[in-house]
Design brief:
This protein is of the alpha/beta class. The protein is built from 15 helices and 14 strands. The protein folds into 2 domains: 188 residues, Rossmann fold (3-Layer(aba) Sandwich), CATH 3.40.50; 252 residues, Rossmann fold (3-Layer(aba) Sandwich), CATH 3.40.50. An 8-stranded mixed sheet has the order 3-2-1-4-5-6-7-8, with helices on both faces. Strand 12, helix 14 and strand 13 form a beta-alpha-beta unit. Helix 1 packs across helix 3 and helix 11 crosses helix 12. The structure holds nicotinamide-adenine-dinucleotide (NAD). The site of nicotinamide-adenine-dinucleotide has 26 residues, from helix 1 and helix 4.
């Protein structure tokens, strides 16, 4: 068993640490935020992710948490799991990665620095040069990008579709592969640049599928087809497969938006205009805003209307609200003059724009509402179309941004219903209040 140091106690760092400990390795997790380390030392996890608290607790004797970088000195592997957010230009901000390289303590033997953070292609070569300059040429370097999805992160780590390992020296890649010996998954071995690109390309492809099915959904709406049926029929084609064909209000989260921008910028910095990816990004931005149009079609002007936003997290199973569609939607609704009340079972609603009221329960969110919008596919919302909801709402309209509910059942329960890419029944569109006449100046 090996001794593994981990830089970063975020989603990737803690999941990696918890899973390596479960696989029998000794783990030292280092972060720079004292509150995070305090929380972890108390036996709590600073964010919501299934199974992470249990794994960390079950393997507590093999996991330590520290602020002191010297504590990773004896580790054979040093995993970099720090955040790489976008800069103003859209390029990945690698400042935290460089801080890690600068902070590395004296290291004995041949430890391997393993990059799990998502970084632009070419980063490994720069880090290699940086290590050499610091006199750390005895430290190996391996790219081992992470593919986990929040909400199912432990499962994804323990049963991955593949493990990508890119190295400059085969022996370093071999050493990293041994850490995963108990995991049954294909290992793709490559050079460092290719491993970095595998991660960016995989994410870009997933986003492309989402924007593709969202555009199909928009055409379905215009033509009377049902995107749920269309996706089922398309997904059964073995050349295409069923995954990432759920139409909705667009992707969000800490990875897709920033990684798509980073790849687009990487391409354009190298002189290539990645047209397809630019379109994927634009389609996603427009998709988040389409809900506003749907609401207006039913309610007319949204000024003074009460809208319940159900779900704040960018997807179910996580409390992560980074780049969540809920934020864009809430801002747009406030700009239209609507009163917005939001609910989420775990996400931190304070991340929403000022002016959004926070409800503790779904019932409280929909009370007196002119419309309820399903933003996150939480299980708690599956029985939203109930008698209680209908009675509580001022106007029984559900806009289902995740196609979570059955349209027919919802309509039978007395609601006007609109999903994404699903046929609209004429009886759904309620009489509209006329837009207020524009004020005349002077
Ligand atoms: N979250 C995901 O679903 C996911 C999936 C795959 C890949 N990734 C990638 O993994 C990386 C980490 O993502 P995340 O979501 O875990 O980020 P995060 O923001 O949740 O966590 C990053 C952590 O690194 C810490 N940190 C910053 N500088 C540090 C330093 N010098 N030493 C030690 N710790 C330091 C931060 O305090 C923070 O706790 C990113 O590059 C991301 O793109 C994320």
């Amino acid at each position: 068993m090996s001794k593994v140091g981990i830089f970063g106690a975020g989603w990737v760092g803690l999941v990696t640490g918890a899973c390596f400990a479960e696989l029998g390795h000794e783990v030292v997790v280092r972060d720079v935020v004292p509150e995070k380390i305090d929380t972890l030392r108390r036996g709590e996890v600073p964010f919501h992710e299934e199974r992470v608290p249990e794994l960390l607790q079950a393997n507590a004797e093999r996991v330590t948490y520290t602020l002191d970088v010297a504590d990773v000195a004896g580790c054979e592997f040093l995993f970099v799991c720090v955040d790489t957010p976008p800069t103003y230009s859209g390029d990945a901000d690698l400042s935290r990665v460089w801080t890690v390289i600068e902070e590395l303590p004296e290291l004995e033997g041949r430890p391997v620095l393993v990059m799990k953070s998502t970084v632009p292609v070419g980063t490994g070569e720069k880090v290699r040069a940086g290590l050499d300059q610091r006199g750390l040429d005895h430290v190996g370097y391996v790219s081992n990008p992470e593919f986990l999805a929040e909400g199912r992160a432990v499962r994804d780590f323990m049963k991955p579709d593949r493990i990508a390992i890119g190295d400059f020296h085969e022996a370093d890649g071999d050493a990293v592969a041994t850490l995963y010996a108990k995991i049954d998954a294909p290992i793709v071995r490559s050079d460092v640049n290719s491993a970095e690109m595998i991660k960016l390309a995989a994410n870009a492809f997933l986003m492309t599928r989402i924007s593709f099915i969202n555009e199909i959904a928009n055409v379905c709406e215009a033509t009377g087809a049902d995107v749920v049926k269309v996706a089922e029929g398309v997904g059964l084609d073995h050349r295409l497969g069923p995954h990432f064909l759920r139409a909705g209000i667009g992707y969000g989260g800490s990875c897709f938006p920033k990684d798509s921008l980073a790849l687009k910028q990487l391409a354009s910095n190298s002189g290539y205009h990645f047209q397809l990816l630019s379109a994927v990004i634009e389609v996603n931005e427009l998709q988040k805003r389409r809900v506003v149009g749907k609401l207006k079609r039913h309610l007319g002007s949204l000024a003074g209307k009460n809208i319940a936003l159900l779900g704040i997290a960018f997807k179910a199973g996580t409390d992560d609200v980074r780049e969540a569609p809920s934020i864009v939607l809430a801002s747009r609704l406030l700009a239209e003059g609507a009163e917005v009340r939001a609910w989420d079972p775990v996400a931190d609603a304070r991340k929403l724009p000022k002016g959004v009221e926070i409800a503790a329960t779904v019932a409280e969110a929909v009370r007196g509402a002119d419309a309820a919008v399903i933003v996150t596919e939480w299980d708690e919302l599956r029985d939203l179309a109930s008698e209680q909801t209908r009675a509580a709402m001022a106007n029984p309209l559900i806009v289902d941004g995740r196609n979570l509910l059955d349209p027919e059942e919802t309509r039978r329960a007395g609601f006007a219903y609109e999903g994404i890419g699903r046929p609209v029944s004429p009886s759904d569109v309620l009489p509209q209040t006329p837009e207020p006449a524009p004020a005349h100046e002077g």
